[in-house]
Each structure stands twice: as structure tokens, then as C-alpha cells.
Write a structure and sequence with these properties.
Elements lengths: L5 E9 L4 E3 H8 L3 H7 L4 E3 L7 H16 L8 E4 L12 H9 L5 E4 L6 H15 L5 E8 L21 E9 L5 E9 L7 E4 L2 H4 L12 E4 L2 H26 L7 E6 L4 H10 L20 H11 L8 E8 L3 E8 L2
Length: 337
Amino acid sequence: MSLPTIGIAGIGTYFPPHIETAAEIVERTGIPESILQQKMGIVQRHIAGETDTISHMATIAAQRALEDAGIPPSAVGAVISHGSEHKDHLVWNAAAKIQGNLGAVNAFAFEVYALCAGAAIAVGAAQGLMIANPSLACAVLVAASREHDLVNLSNPRTRFMTNFGAGAGAMVLARDYPRNHIVGMSAFTDGSLAEAVILSQSREVAGERPEVSADLRGKLDVIQPEYMTERLGETSLRNFVRVIEEATSRAGAGLGDIAFLGITHMKRSFYEEILAAVGLTPAQSVYLQDYGHVQSADQVLALQLGLQAGTIRPGDLVVLAGAGVGYTWSALAIRWG
């Protein structure tokens, strides 16, 4: 018995209207504008306003994805949130709120949390559920982030998080969809880095007023900066290549078959190093310099920008990859068109 094919029927994004440029970040970071733009790859980023909650941004992105797919909310069987744990409330299922906002009255809702590596893992989870359950014909996967709230820009240990921006991305998966098939997924975790980055309430990190919201106190901090730098320097490129290669292999293809790579925002030199390591050029990807890093919404954004630019064509093997503290790397292979 052959397994059903699962395809991407629609995608959508949302970004808050307020934009902060690299020039505006200089004073709070002490980093020259030229370094922010050229080395760190931050031309601008979107900043969440008071009403741009995780559930609000995710709902708009999901609505746009459903409109793109031409599928009504009543046809959705599952809503999966794989976005930020910094959400409207603590210890709370944001997916249920998003499901209610969408009017997906026939769906169940839950969360998958793998930080910035969550997109590929959430797709793999949804694909498995849809294969196992013949009645589950459509799922909405959505991620939203306003992680910039959690970063003290004057803390040198979290300088690499200066690129955090706000926004949301969503995709609609459909059973037996004739196009855009999910053909491979891979993920890998290095648990030795599990506590490298945590939320700290110390005055040094959080400042005089540590409250982020009525419920949340503290800012992100790197607890093991030397070890994290050393370990990632040794393994990150290798692990990115590993998951990209594995996802591609599971699609019955090789690295030379990849036509487009959509990847998490990171400093420009490492982005280019990953492309070169898998045999690709910047012309076969998009760099998210005008958005920054929007956690696991980056992959949908990269896919959307690649389609808009005409970089992704029917028949292309597309790979979406990401990595998140914890430390997890993931990749998803899609046969587009």
C-alpha cells in the first residue's frame, strides 16, 4: 500500500509595520552601522507593537496561508504552532487561541517547540499524523516570534541575537495534494549545548526593570559563552550540512540536485559558508537582511521570497533549513510544483 503524498497548498506571512533600521540600533549596541549591515546582515528588522501578540501575528499569517490555498477554515483538521515560547501568556497553548481565531472549528490544536529549528520538525510531525490518520486531510502550521523583547542589546554575550525581528509565517499542508510535495526531513540535536542560553533575571542581564510583560521577567543570556563559541565553531557547519544532506537523501536526491536553499538568518559570512559547503551560490537562496531572524518563521519567509523573485521554479528541489539553541539543526526537502 502506497503512502499518501503531503503537499504545501498555501503559505502566508505577517510582519508588524514598525521597522527599525541598522542606524537606529547603533546607539544601544555600540556596534558600527557598517558592521551591523555587512557582517551581521541587519539592514532592518520589524519590531512588534503592543497588539502584535504571538497569537495575533500567527492568526494573520495563517489566514493568508489559507487564502493562498483556497481552503476554508472548516476544512482544517489540525493547527500546529511551532513558534516562540515568549507568547501571550505563560504555560499556555497558543495553538488553541489561533485555532479559535481562525474559526477552524473542526480542528485540534497543539504546539511543537524546537526554537529556531522548529519548522522542519513541525512539518515532519504533521506529515506523520496525516499519514497515520486518513481523516486528517489538512493542517495549518504557524510560527510567530517577538523574541527581540528578550534581548538586552547592551549585553555583549547576546550580541548575535541583535538580528531578532518580529513576525509570523504559516503553511497549509494538504493530504494527496498534487504539488509541492514534502519528500524528506532531518533533524539532529547536540544536548551538550542545552543550557548555553537561558532566560536570566539577574540585574546585570535584565537591567533595572526586568519585566518584559506582566507575567514574564528577565532577558536572554549566554551562560557558557566560551563553550558555546567553541562547540558551535567545531560542529555547526558540519551539522547544517548533515541535516541538509540527510533530508535530500531521503528525497532520493543528492546535494547537487538542490535548486534552492532557504535558511535561518545568521551572520552573512556563515550563511555564505553553508551555501558553499553544499555546492550552492547566493543566487540559489535569499538572505533575510530586511527582516532579521524571526525564529522558525524564517523558512516560510525564505520560501515566499524565493517564489516572488522567481528563484524557485516548478520541479525544483527546495530545502529549508534552520538551527536553534538547544542545540538543534533541521532541514526539510520539498519537490516544488
